[in-house]
Amino acid sequence: MLDSLDLFLIAPIRWALLEVLQFAYSLTHSHGLALIVLSVVFNLLLMPAYHWAEKVQARERAIQQRMRSKIDEFRAVFKGQELHMMLRQLYQLHGYHPAYALRALAPLAIQIPFFIAAFGLLSDYAPFNGASFLFIDDLARPDGLLAGANLLPLVMTAVNLLALELYARQLTSGQWAQGVGVALIFLVLLYASPSGLVLYWTFNNVLSLAKSAWYARDGIGGVPQRSHLMRLLGDLLGVWRSGRTQRLLDSLSGTIGRTYWLACACLFMLVIVALPIGFASLEDNVDGLSGYIPFVLVAALLSSIPALLLCAIAYRLFNPAWRAWTSVLAFCVTTLALVFAFVQQPDAGMLDNFVFFTPQALAPGAGSLALDLFLTGSVVMFSLWLTVRHPNALRNVLGVLLLTSVLSIGASLWSLDKRIDQTLAAATPDTKLFRYSRTEPNVLLIFLDGAMSGYIPAILEDEPQLKTQLLGFSWFPNVISSGNRTINGLPSVFGGPDYTVGAINARQDGTLKEKVSDAYRLYVENFHARGYDVQYSDPFWFGLVRSGDCDLFNQQYAKTGKGRCIHSIGQGVQERKRKVTSEQSSDFFQGLTKQYLAITLFRIAPHSLKNAIYDGGQWLSMSFAWKKRLDKYLNNFFSLHALPQVSSLDSDRPTFNFITNETPRAPFLLDDDCLPTDARDGKVSRVAPRFKDAETQKIFETHRCVLLGVGEFVSWMREQGVLDNTYIVLASDHGWVSDNPLLDGIPGQRKYAMYQAFLMVKPFNADHTLREDPTYIANFSVPGMLCETIGGCLDRATGKTIRYTPLVPPVTLYETPWQPAGQTHDKYVIDAVHENRGPVSQALSWHTANGTDFAELPRHDHAHPPATRMVTSGAP
Predict the structure, then answer these.
(1) Which H helix or E strand runs over 603?
(2) pTM of the predicted protein model
(3) For 479, which of 23, 59, 74, 759 could close a Cys bridge (C-beta 3.0–4.6 Å)?
(4) Amino acid 758: pLDDT
């Protein structure tokens, strides 16, 4: 049903919006101006529909105006069921039904599909990453212009309320209150949205303001003695007078049942279903969520049964007064949940394995407590006022909330399903993903996320057969990375020393997205020019998208035949995973249920309690991270071992393949078959662990299994006769916070381990024994090594020729946030700076610089100096 709604209604609108937006950008070369053009175009196209909606709304107001005096008279004389009967007769006399009040929502009904389409398009529109407009630094992020608070949503709401005031002469106080409620709903929904989306909707409101001014010039009805705003203030003070329950019963007379059930439905759909599902969109890594969507649907269905029974029993047992107050309470809780979920949220970053990137942002303080008290008091007052003074508006607002919840559920599930489909595989084990040539040169770069060379000696002692399988390889213990994250370490593996943090920050041209993406061009353009068939598999952070924006890559390169991009992690391994996890189905359901409950509590909790629920990533001991980490391990481990099955040897051209594998990033204690026997408790069948520290042992075990997978693949290539004509590089982007054995005894061992990378190389026709190469080298030397195979590479972004040159110390090392949201629009944000001056096993080789002595250090980054000042969060 939701797929059909999206296919036949939302998708065409989204396509039209995209076409107009792209055309407008081609004319203006400004994403901000393109958004304004988009708003103007669609408002002009919808003008006839808005005009019709205004007429429908005017008819509704006219009917209510004719009945108003009688309704007021009846309310003053009659009570309870008698009042209900008199109102029904009045409605029949005027050919009216209370449901017709929904006609007043006609303009909103027109906007909703366009809002959903715009939200789906602009909330994750890749070209907005790093794009600025006027005072907005990044259209892909909230603006944060008011000392971290977002200004544009407030401007949008102010414009909306101003338009409402201009139109107020033609509105009853109830209709005005309804308009205020809708404006506040949009404020809550869009407050934390990307500024590009809010800019578009703000300009929509500006145009709506112009339309309101036009229609208001011919407005009908007398001007009230007091403005609606002044009446609101008076009413807020009046709701606390004595006799509140009676006034509540009078206001809901004849409609208590409908209001009660609508409030219950709204509370359930929003709090129990919509908000937790939307929270999953923050999860950066969808490994382990392949069963999340059916679980949500089943959980929603199952939980609706006790919720329905509870509401029915309460309705049966309660008298009318209690039913009325229960309706108020349900509306109040729903509104509070919505407010606490969206208003002034602490920016804790993205989730990775259900762990926030910057959890310190959740720390409570006096400010968050004061905000919670203020919001709670405001919502309670507003809920009671709306119920007592404007029950029809209350029901309309509940209806809008219910509809919004359903649409939000559908949009969130669709978005999550799309991400899972893109990441997790539909391919069969027989699908050929990689091509090599039997007669022409093959260049293969395998990226092992977070791997470290420090564990290789211990692995070779435990697995001596690797020395035979890896003939021709050299491994480098003294290999470093200039970055501590994939986002800052991997670009230099593609582009060389000009794509370290310091070098990128020193460049004044382009956005961070453009500068990072330039690195990925090097292999594509140069190897294609030499006749190579080039393919990237999961090029992390290309286009500043974590798993690599293959759509953008293929748009730039596949259309011209230069290269192609695929997502291969998890492809064709589902059956092997199923055999391992078949006995954990109950664990999966229980784990998801607990995490879902924790997410629900976190989403609706006051700001001052969110940190306690997050509980350092443990989520009140209900974390589901173990299952997601297990899925990441199995997807990558089986993908590595499946390389012979998904590779073909039918290419008649030289080939260049880049392959990503994240197995080192999901460490487990493993058995001899490299399988976690119990992912949650860490119980394994292996005995006599090499390392006393459990975390270090996990990293060792996982690295061992990675090399076993590589050894199997190399053996297959040797058997197929393609090893000699294949140049292989195994490289990592950074190390990991750990007790890396190569750094034993060095002060700051765990910190500096982030920069001890992994590098193994097998040149063409090499057949020597596996050996250690003590050369001082960095992972950003990899492009030079690979480019030597074709006589050098030209970097068109810098104009330099890339070839291998020996690394000269010292090398500057950078700590930055791991995600784009932590950077500025054109530079990395540097959290800390370190330096390496030689062999990684020597304490004198490592140095940590602070903001003062960093400026005095000789800085090379392989002869490319970094920016002259550190970029801090929020700085340009």
Answers:
(1) helix 585-604
(2) 0.64
(3) 759
(4) 97
